């Protein structure tokens, strides 16, 4: 009897190795390689197997139908999904343990079940545990159908015989196919189970939610091919110490990417936050040094958040840099530009930066607000509490324009801000040097700057490199 063949697969990136080794050469992770049964050999060419079906091509020009949407009646979830759920679509939801993934999906299916058939299949909890959570959220009278199962063969047979309109699989790492010898949660099992469930959802036309675990780096565990198979990838973010939760779309075939939905964790589950800017600024104290309001964009939505900075003398030879909610490399760049282009001596200080409220800011338009917060803390002079700031900083110290400036300014004016610090307008392309029209926002005074030196001049003298050396 021939010996069954095996292969060694990295559980972090899916790379295949001929033998076991401690470190994966594909992703650099340690102790992630496990032995799995090798799949059966396939024909080397497509023509080596049975004959295929001839494809029918259609012209590109033609009427395209807009996919119908199924409203979940949770406005923030519908916004992130692009306006609602599309029949036959697959959505992958990832997030840290205990962040609220199961709670959100249980609330969504409870709202949808009043108008359509919804099933919730749990592989991690027993039915009684799901019922207890539903009772705590006040959803125990909802007609959601529950099941506890981990066998994909049983799930596919059940859903194929009586397909629902919405199905939730919580979580995909607990599912297994009995045709594979590997354990649940391995790369081969996650890939195969996802493929079977997504293919069934597209064939039967029901919306499928897959809950995915995340790694210590915050990315969804398992092979990246799983994110390519689904139509929408949603990340549930939030700090344990904050009540706010951010649902962010990083991929969406039926809507905009980088769209966010904001929720607040309450005793009755997740509540929508209709005006996140007001909530993020609710605890802000005016006239405090090291604080600046940044007017940012998250998808199509303007969001105002408070950026806090603390610059303090360091007692060590290597100053500390601690960042929460922003890119550490971006902070190092802003500090380097302040020192090299403006002559400020901030490199020998400890620097702490925080985006208040638990939101993670990723756009470079926050550079100017971060620089203003750093200068405010270094000089102990507060930024005007009535001012909103945005702009990108280049390596030569220039302040670059950013997209959707008028939308940011309108949001600032709506929240009662009377002053804004923005990048200087640039000439229109091909206009012969003619400047773009200045945005006119009622009740808002817009101040433009073109270089970081203009921002430094707004604060009293900061210790220079020459002064600190004396």
Automatic annotation (TrEMBL):
* Protein's UniProt keywords contain Ion transport: no
CDD domains from the UniProt entry? RadA_SMS_N (cd01121)
Keywords of the record, alphabetical order, are: ATP-binding, DNA damage, DNA repair, DNA-binding, Hydrolase, Metal-binding, Nucleotide-binding, Stress response, Zinc, Zinc-finger
Q: Its Gene Ontology molecular function terms?
A: ATP binding; ATP-dependent DNA damage sensor activity; damaged DNA binding; hydrolase activity; zinc ion binding
Map motif RadA KNRFG motif onto the chain: 251-255
Q: What is this protein called?
A: DNA repair protein RadA
Q: Where is the RecA family profile domain?
A: 66-214
Q: Name one GO biological process term.
A: recombinational repair
The domain section of the record reads: The middle region has homology to RecA with ATPase motifs including the RadA KNRFG motif, while the C-terminus is homologous to Lon protease.
* Pfam families to which the protein is assigned, alphabetical: AAA_25, ChlI, Zn_ribbon_LapB
Q: What does this protein do?
A: Plays a role in repairing double-strand DNA breaks, probably involving stabilizing or processing branched DNA or blocked replication forks. DNA-dependent ATPase involved in processing of recombination intermediates, plays a role in repairing DNA breaks. Stimulates the branch migration of RecA-mediated strand transfer reactions, allowing the 3' invading strand to extend heteroduplex DNA faster. Binds ssDNA in the presence of ADP but not other nucleotides, has ATPase activity that is stimulated by ssDNA and various branched DNA structures, but inhibited by SSB. Does not have RecA's homology-searching function.
Q: Kindly give the PROSITE patterns that the UniProt entry links to this protein.
A: RECA_2
Q: Where does ATP bind?
A: 95-102
Give the species this sequence originates from: Caenispirillum salinarum AK4
* Gene Ontology cellular component list: cytosol
- Do the record's keywords include Iron? no
Which parts of the sequence are annotated with region: Lon-protease-like? 350-470
Output the InterPro entries linked to this UniProt entry.
AAA+_ATPase, DNA_repair_RadA, P-loop_NTPase, RecA_ATP-bd, Ribosomal_Su5_D2-typ_SF, Ribsml_uS5_D2-typ_fold_subgr, Rubredoxin_2
SUPFAM superfamilies the UniProt entry points to: P-loop containing nucleoside triphosphate hydrolases, Ribosomal protein S5 domain 2-like
Gene label: radA
Its family? Belongs to the RecA family. RadA subfamily.
């Amino acid at each position: 009897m021939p010996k069954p063949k095996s292969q060694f697969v990295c559980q972090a990136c899916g790379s295949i190795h001929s033998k076991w080794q401690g470190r994966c050469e594909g992703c650099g992770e340690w102790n992630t390689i496990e032995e799995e049964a090798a799949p059966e050999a396939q024909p080397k060419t497509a023509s080596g197997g049975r004959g295929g079906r001839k494809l029918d091509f259609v012209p590109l020009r033609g009427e395209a139908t807009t996919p119908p949407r199924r409203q979940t009646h949770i406005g923030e979830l519908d916004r992130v999904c692009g306006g609602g759920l599309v029949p036959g679509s697959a959505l992958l939801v990832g997030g840290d343990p205990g962040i609220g993934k199961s709670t959100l999906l249980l609330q969504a299916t409870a709202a949808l079940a009043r108008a359509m058939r919804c099933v919730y299949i749990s592989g991690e909890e027993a039915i009684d545990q799901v019922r207890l959570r539903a009772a705590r959220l006040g959803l125990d009278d909802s007609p959601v159908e529950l099941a506890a199962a981990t066998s994909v063969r049983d799930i596919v047979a059940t859903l194929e015989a009586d397909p629902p309109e919405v199905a939730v699989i919580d979580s995909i790492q607990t599912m297994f196919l009995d045709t594979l010898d590997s354990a649940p949660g391995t790369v081969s099992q996650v890939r195969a189970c996802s493929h079977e469930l997504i293919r069934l959802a597209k064939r039967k036309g029901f919306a499928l939610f897959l809950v995915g675990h995340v790694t210590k780096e915050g990315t969804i565990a398992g092979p990246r091919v799983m994110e390519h198979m689904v139509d929408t990838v949603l990340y549930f973010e939030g700090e344990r110490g904050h009540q706010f939760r951010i649902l962010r779309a990083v991929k969406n075939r039926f809507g905009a990417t980088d769209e966010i939905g904001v929720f607040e964790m309450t005793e009755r589950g997740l509540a929508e936050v209709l005006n996140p800017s007001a909530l993020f600024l609710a605890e802000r104290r005016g006239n405090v040094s090291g604080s600046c309001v940044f007017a940012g964009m998250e998808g199509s939505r303007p969001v105002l958040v408070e950026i806090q900075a603390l610059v303090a003398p360091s007692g060590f030879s290597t100053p500390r840099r601690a960042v929460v909610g922003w890119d550490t490399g971006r902070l190092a760049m802003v500090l380097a530009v302040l020192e090299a282009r403006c002559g400020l001596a901030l490199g020998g200080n400890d620097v702490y930066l925080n985006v208040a409220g638990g939101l993670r800011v990723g756009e470079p338009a926050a550079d100017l607000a971060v620089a203003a917060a750093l200068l405010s803390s270094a000089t102990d002079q507060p930024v005007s509490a009535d001012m909103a700031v945005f702009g990108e900083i280049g390596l030569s110290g220039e302040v670059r324009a950013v997209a959707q400036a008028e939308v940011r300014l309108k949001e600032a004016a709506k929240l009662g801000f009377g002053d804004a610090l923005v990048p200087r307008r640039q000439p229109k392309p091909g206009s012969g040097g003619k400047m773009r029209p200045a945005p006119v926002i009622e009740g808002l005074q817009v101040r433009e700057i073109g270089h970081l030196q203009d921002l430094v001049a707004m604060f009293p003298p900061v210790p220079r490199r020459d002064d600190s050396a004396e």
